[in-house]
Every structure is written in C-alpha cells, then in structure tokens.
Write a structure and sequence with these properties.
Helices cover about 50% and strands about 15% of the residues. By secondary structure, the protein is an alpha/beta fold. The structure holds uridine-5'-diphosphate and magnesium ion.
Length: about 325
C-alpha cells in the first residue's frame, strides 16, 4: 500500500513552536527566490504571528541553494532542507511537512506564481470558519489554455467526482493545513495534489477560496502534458485507498462473484444444451467466455483474500488505528 492513509496519532506528539510554517519546494528557481523572500517577509511581518519559511531545495542545479543559504544566514526564520538529488515536488512537500514547526502549515510554489499576499486571507478563513484545510483556487490562472487549463479542468472534475471532495483546483499549491492534517499523512509518488482528498478520510473540514495567480516571470515550468496520465493513475490509487484500503475483499470479491456467476450461468446453459439437444460445444465462443469469466472471477476473489491479509499486516504491524477520534469525553 502506498500511503499511510490512516493517521497514527502517536506519531505527532510534537507541539507547534511557531504559528506559521511556509513550505516551499524549490527546483531551479534562482531568479525568483530573493523576490519571493522579500514578498513573503513583507506579508508575514505585517501579521501578528510567529513564522518560519522552509525552503526545500529539490536538487537544483542552478544557484538556488546558494541563495537559500544566504537567506538563512540573513534571517534564521528561513530554514533550508537540501535534497541530494531531484526527488520531485511531492517529496519536497513531504520533507517540509516533516520538519514544519508551525501550528498552521501553508504550502506554495517558489516561482512567484502564487501570491504571498493571499496568506492572511487563507489564515483568516481557516480560523473564522474553523476549517482544517483551506485550498486556493486560481480563478484567473495564468498558464497555457490548451496544454494546462483544459487538462486541469477535466482532472479537477474527475478527481472531485471520484473522491467526493469537490474542489475546482486541486493543482493549486497555495493551501493552508492545520498541523495535525499534514503530520498524519505520508505522501508517495505525485500525491501532493491529493492531500485534501486524502485528508477527507480523517474527517476534516475543507474550504476552497479564490486566490491570485501570476504568469511565470523567471525560469520554466517543470511539467508538461505528461502529468495528466500520472494524475490519472494516482487518482486510481487514491480512490482505492479512500474506499477500500481497509476492506479489499469488498471490491475484489464483489467483482469476482459477479464475473464468476455470469461464467457459471453460461456454463450451465451450455451444459444443458449439450445434454438435452446434443449440440456440439466445440464451435461455441460462449464456452471460452464462460471459462474466462470463471477464471477471472476466482482470481478476483483470491486477490481480495490476499488483500485482506496485506491489510492486516499493514495495520497490525504498525499499530495503526482504522479510525480517527476527534475527542473523547470521560477517559
Ligand atoms: N518543483 C520541485 N521539484 C520538481 C518540480 C518542481 O520542487 O521536480 C517546484 C518548483 O520549483 C515550483 C513548484 O514545484 O516551486 C511548481 O513547479 P512549476 O512552477 O514548474 O509547476 P507549474 O506551476 O507549471 O504547474
Ligand atoms: Mg509554476
């Protein structure tokens, strides 16, 4: 199984040391970084909160790390994590989440496409509405129409329908999370965009708010159209984990029974034909279909059983609960 869907509350006993952590994965963004820091600092210092910025250098080959280092030397509220190589944006977020000391964790891009000026609004929305996740929605997205916006529209519609967490913009990096949300989710692959959907399993309150978006001024986008298939595959994983992670037999068993039943019914029909009319079965494609369906059905059911074993190993070896408690009265 590829994600810890089930939070283990005992893993997050560390108390928050600051109010806000801004987590920013950085991959070859040397021109943007100084300006990003200036803009962030202006906004953050204007708020009545203690804060830290976590720059995760994802194996940049340009001067990004040197700049991050200089920013840290100048202001120790800037913390820097440097990867040994390029592990990808999801890994960047994951490292940032692991090291974040804030009560609220805000994620954003390093390329100045997200606007630091939106941060107070995100925070205000979270606190006033008692939300656990506040997700940005790039209403005026400044990216290519055909290669970026159209695939993104379709993807958001599909992700919303499948996960039943209805957001217009899963891909927007500018999001705010309460500490317990990100501390209890482990990310793999390219799952960072699915954090709201994964968190929904925990029973979180999610709100989407419109945010600014600017065209990229420096450097280049790190992604192309190939992201679409990866998102689709990840969606399959997420949907399985959300619905069946703790009960694989329910999905595999259901389809196994359906296919095996149809196969058996066909077999019975063919046997009856043979017995009562003496018809020859050797020329009947239906016979092959019956055999195929029965075999597939049995395999599905076996897969379900194996899945059940894996689930038990997964939860019991790590003492993971299959539930999340909000509070207990009278302990
Ligand atoms: N990024 C990263 N590692 C990667 C690719 C991207 O840390 O392997 C960072 C990148 O520096 C930026 C953010 O992820 O801060 C979003 O990347 P990009 O702007 O290329 O994506 P787009 O906005 O075009 O979707
Ligand atoms: Mg960008």
């Amino acid at each position: 199984m590829s994600i810890t869907l089930v939070p283990a509350p005992e893993t997050d006993t560390t108390a928050a040391a600051v109010d806000l952590s801004i987590v920013i994965p950085v991959y070859n963004e040397e021109e943007s970084l100084p300006k990003l820091y200036d803009a962030l600092r202006e906004v953050l210092d204007g708020m009545d909160e203690s804060w830290e910025i976590i720059l995760v250098d994802d194996g940049s080959q340009d001067g990004s790390y040197a700049i991050a280092q200089a920013l840290h030397a100048r202001d120790d509220r800037v913390r820097v994590i440097r990867f040994r190589r390029n592990f990808g944006q999801t890994a960047g977020f994951a490292a940032g989440f692991d090291h974040a000391r804030g009560e609220v964790i805000i994620t954003m891009d390093a390329d100045l496409q997200n606007d630091p000026a939106d941060i107070p609004m995100l925070l205000c929305t979270m606190r006033e509405g008692d939300y656990d996740v506040v997700s940005g929605w790039r209403v005026n997205r400044q990216d290519g129409f055909i290669m970026r916006k159209i695939p993104s529209r379709i993807a958001n519609w599909l992700i919303s329908r499948v996960t039943k967490v209805y957001l217009h913009d899963y891909g927007c990096s500018l999001k705010a999370y309460r500490r317990e949300v990100v501390k209890n989710i482990n990310l793999y692959g390219e799952l960072h965009r699915f954090v709201p959907a994964l968190a929904s399993w925990m029973g979180v309150r999610i709100k989407e708010v419109p945010v600014n978006h600017h065209a990229r001024r420096y450097g280049q986008s790190k992604y192309g159209i190939s992201r679409t298939t990866r998102v689709l595959l990840d969606l399959t994983t997420v949907s399985f984990l959300l619905n069946y992670a703790a009960k694989p037999m329910q999905i595999f068993g259901k389809w196994g029974l359906i296919t095996a039943f149809i196969g058996v019914a066909m077999g019975v029909y063919l046997t009856a034909l043979k017995l009562f009319t003496g018809a020859s079965l050797s020329q009947r494609p239906l016979l092959w279909l019956a055999v195929l369906l029965i075999i597939v059905g049995v395999q599905f059911i076996s897969l379900g059983l194996l899945g059940e074993l894996v689930v038990r190993t997964y939860y019991e070896t790590q003492n993971k609960p299959i539930y999340v408690i909000r509070e207990v009265l009278g302990e």
